[in-house]
Structure formats: C-alpha cells, structure tokens
Specification:
Epimerase_deHydtase; alpha/beta; two-stranded parallel ribbon; globular; oxidoreductase activity, acting on the CH-OH group of donors, NAD or NADP as acceptor; Rossmann fold; 8 helices; NAD(P)-bd_dom_sf; 7 strands
C-alpha cells in the first residue's frame, strides 16, 4: 500500500522538491497550505500526479490547534514532513513575524501529531544552517568545522530586537533546538565560493561570459579560516551521496535558461 504523507509548505522551494520525490515514490500526499490559491497552484504544477494529491487549508499556523484537523486524514498518515516557515525581509513590521510562525507553528504541528495522529511513525522537518552557524564569526584560526552538535549563539533578545537576519537565524534556532533530541542531520555537501561558480559557468557556457563575473579565475574568494561543515553523519546514517558542485551549477543554469526562453 502506498504511504500516506502530510506535507506542510509544499508550495515552497524545498517543499515542492520533497513533494516531487514523494510522488515519484508512489506516496499519496496531503499538502497543508495557508490559502486555497496556494493549493490550486500545487495541483497545477503537479497536474500529471493530481490523483495522488489532496489539499488541506491551515490559514494560521500560530493559532492554537492549527493542525489538529489536518493531521486526522483518511486514510491515516504514516509520516509528516514539515517545511513551512516564513522567509522574507520585505514588509517585516516585527521580528516576531519570523519567530512566532517558526516556533509556534512547529510546536502546534508536533502537538497535533502527538494528540491526534497515533499512526504517524516519523516526523521530519527541514531547518537551515542558520540554526547551526555563528554568522558573526565566519572566519577563525584554525577554521571552524561545524557539526550537528552546534547551534548558533543568537539569544532571544537579539532575535527579537536585532536586524531581520538575526530574527531569521533565531527562528531556526528556537524552533529546532528543544525537539532535536532524536536525530539531527546537516545536509550540506561541501564548502564552495562564487569564484568556483563563475569558473564553471564560463567553462561550460561561454555564451554567458558577458553575464558572468570574471573575478580571478582559478583562485578562491573565501578568506583564509572560512568555516566548513562535517557531513559524515548524514552520509553514514542516511546514505546520502551529494551531487558535485559542477553538476549542481550547470543544472541550475539550464533550468534558469529554460525559464528565460
């Protein structure tokens, strides 16, 4: 029998890729979104697989009991993927616009699963390296190597009263830290810099040379002591094999060119 999955944020960048993978693996997916318009767009984007998709509307993920009805699907859910979280600096009247949905939305979903969805065997939610890295100290001697055990040092006061980037980093930190006691995985391939990206594009797409910064070909634009990330855990336990930077850059470029044309 096909697995039944609840997915939040399926209209977003990461969520839409997760949705595609779930559908390709034969899962039936209920997408929880904030508006019917967003749900309709998902159905249009995945028109060939509409029969595997249902939509449920959760207009305010911060409201108490926001997900209580959504998690009680029929047939019952086997797993929940949580990707919904705000990320926009535009028109941010208060840093709480980042913090409250990330924290309360996650807690509401976890509580709803615990209280109303006993069939769920696994909850997976996507975070960000923003919860791991100390962005105020990106360079060190010796260079810092981050792992799943690391957390950014932003305090609640800094997240509430600082600039929006601190609010975003705080939203990831405070949403994830208390509930990450099971397993946390940093899904990151390797360190790279934008000189690498430019060199790859110029090598494979000379017709884009006028649109691609030259920089200093063959050199590194990262400063000495720039941090890196240890991804041995995700490789060992989940068997993840990362694509090369070259493949990633060229695939992204082809996609953008297809959209442009």
């Amino acid at each position: 029998m096909a697995r039944r999955v609840l997915l939040t944020g399926g209209n977003g960048f990461i969520g839409s890729h997760i949705l595609a993978q779930l559908l390709d693996h034969g899962c039936t997916v209920c997408c929880a979104v904030r508006t019917q318009e967003k749900g309709d767009k998902i159905l249009r984007d995945f028109a060939a697989q509409q029969s595997q998709i249902t939509i449920t509307i959760v207009p305010d993920i911060v409201a108490p009991g926001a997900y209580d009805t959504a998690v009680q699907g029929t047939p019952a859910f086997d797993a929940v993927y949580h990707t919904a979280s705000p990320f926009t600096y535009a028109n941010a009247g208060s840093n709480l616009q980042f913090l409250e949905p990330a924290i309360k939305g996650t807690l509401n979903l976890l509580k709803a699963v615990k209280d109303n969805a006993p069939s769920v065997k696994r909850v997976i939610w996507t975070g960000s390296c923003a919860s791991v890295i100390d962005y105020d100290n990106l360079v060190a001697d010796p260079p810092r190597i981050y792992t799943e055990a690391d957390w950014n040092p932003v305090t609640w006061e800094e997240a509430v009263n600082g600039d929006p980037s601190k609010a975003y980093r705080g939203s990831k930190l405070f949403a994830e830290r208390e509930e990450a006691g099971n397993q946390r995985f940093v899904v990151c391939a390797r360190q790279f810099d934008f000189q690498d990206v430019c060199d790859i594009l110029r090598s494979h797409h000379p017709e884009l040379s006028e649109r691609t910064p030259l920089g200093k070909p063959g050199t590194r634009s990262l400063p000495p002591g720039a941090y890196s990330i240890d991804n041995s855990k995700v490789k060992k336990f989940l068997g993840v094999e990362f694509r090369s930077l070259e493949e990633t850059v060229l695939d992204a470029a082809r996609c953008m060119l297809d959209i442009e044309h």
